[in-house]
Amino acid sequence: NSDTKPDIIVANKGSATVGVLLNTGSGTFLTQITYATGTQPESVAVVDVNNDNKPDIIVANYGLNIVSVFLHS
């Protein structure tokens, strides 16, 4: 969310979602916000894939051998 506090991103294999937990800055994180992915997400990476200087989320989905890309907006 571009607030300079490190957040957490997790692959939720059982629910076919990726979760984003935003850092509150006080040593805790908000409840995860989930986004639907392909079947069986296994790993995530954060990188700027579209050269807009904002972090995007890439998810490797084992179940269908596909990659999901979530662009920062």
Notable characteristics:
signal, three-stranded antiparallel β-sheet, flat, 73 residues, mainly beta, FG-GAP, Integrin_alpha_N, single chain
Description:
The protein has 73 residues and is mostly beta strands. The chain has one domain (8-70). 0% of the residues lie in helices and 44% in strands. It contains no helices and six strands. The strands form two sheets. A three-stranded antiparallel beta sheet has the order 1-2-3, with no helix packed on it. Strands 4-5-6 form a three-stranded antiparallel beta sheet, with no helix packed on it. Strand 4 and strand 5 form a beta hairpin. It is flat, with a radius of gyration of 12 Å. The mean pLDDT is 95.
Taken from the alpha-carbon principal axes, the silhouette is flat
**H/E series:** EEEEEE
Q: Poorly predicted ranges (pLDDT <50, ≥5 residues)?
A: none
Mean pLDDT reading: 95
Structural class: mainly beta
Q: What Rg do the Cα atoms give?
A: 12 Å
From the structure provided, what is the oligomeric state, counting identical versus distinct chains? single chain
Helix content: under 10%
| Integer count of domains | 1
Beta-strand fraction estimate: 35-45%
Strand order of the largest sheet: 1-2-3
How far from one another are the termini? 9 Å
Q: How many beta-strand elements?
A: 6
Tally the helices: 0
Largest sheet features: 3 strands, antiparallel
